[in-house]
Amino acid sequence: MSDNIPLEIQTEIMKRLPVKSLLRFRSISKSCKSLIDSSDFIKHYVGQQQHLLVRCYDCVAHFEKQPMSIVDDDSLPTQTASVTLPSFVEYPNLIGTSHGLFCFYGPSSGRAVIFNPCIRTTLAFAVPRVTNDRLYRTVIGFGVCRHTTDPKIVKITLTKKSDRHINSPWQVGVFTVSTSTWRSAYSTNLPRNSISIYMNQVVVDGCLYWLASDGCSYLIVSFDLTSEEFREVNLPDSLAQFHGSLALCLYKLRESLAVIKDGVEANKRVYHVWMMQDGSFIKLYTINTSHSPDVSILRVCGFRKTGQPLIELSEAHPGSTSILAAYDPYSKSFTNIRNDGNYSSYSVYSYMETLLLL
Predict the structure, then answer these.
(1) pLDDT at 27
(2) Continuous H helices in 88-136
(3) What is the pTM of this model?
(4) How many other C-beta atoms can be found within 10 angstroms of the C-beta atom of residue 127?
(5) Dihedral of the alpha carbons of 220, 221, 224, 229, in degrees to the nearest 10
(6) H-type helices in the chain, by residue range?
(7) What gap in Å lies between CA 66 and CA 340, rounded to an integer?
(8) Which residues, in sequence order, are CB contacts of 257 under 8 Å at separation 6+?
């Protein structure tokens, strides 16, 4: 850049560039590389472009197709690029996404991998195994601390059944990338022993959220990635009712926590979308195919940055294929994003550009 432009202004301009441009700038001069590689620049860089990582599993041939990254803007789905996941990642074992990073975990290998798809950088490390998998089960969580931008892995070990020799069924370990070590969580204030958490996790505003149950009702357990404190979040009665089979799932809707409950109306599956606002949940709308009787909803895959749900559809006629589409809750219309030609299962993850792990 020109020497006539103050360094502070140059820095602010560069913070607004896409990652691809910044990677090119790193090769222009030592000063540009030094600036972009600095911890302060990486910490405060917030990419302007949002992407959707789409994974597709062919349920007939039983293999995963090449994952694709789609730019999530008005051009959707025209700007696409293939993404090569770390070679030792098994399908499907994505733990979660946070701050543009993805975390995968292979239970059989006992290894976790943090992956930045924008700069194609990976970080792998071992996850301590439980000593007795008949007595214990493990839940892995992943998120980036909003204050330090330090990626963290949270390992929660729960007992499958009560044991009088164990004081608490909750054993919590935290791995931080900055130290590359495991340690105990800062807080010892753990949720009730009767609570069991599910694998589905979401990171919103610096907190990890898991769906949970206490055997009588559903609730949400949160984990603050800064203070490392747990908290129980109650659900409204219509969501908290425990039926044995899980009918709820957590999502990130823009910058809020969302809960989707599936149900059946007129012999067709529907999905009720709720969002947390100011500590309580409000119902936004119901996703259904009343305006498109020839298709059925298989499941909700996530949300676009606009707030539109991304759903997997199936056409009503025999031999139909699965379609990934965006749903407009106001017009109740569908916009096709991807059709792979066979019966497939889609997974979609929204992420922003980041320089973390550079």
Answers:
(1) 86
(2) none
(3) 0.91
(4) 19
(5) 140
(6) 7-14, 19-25, 30-37, 39-44, 237-240
(7) 11
(8) 202, 204, 209, 220, 250, 251, 275, 276
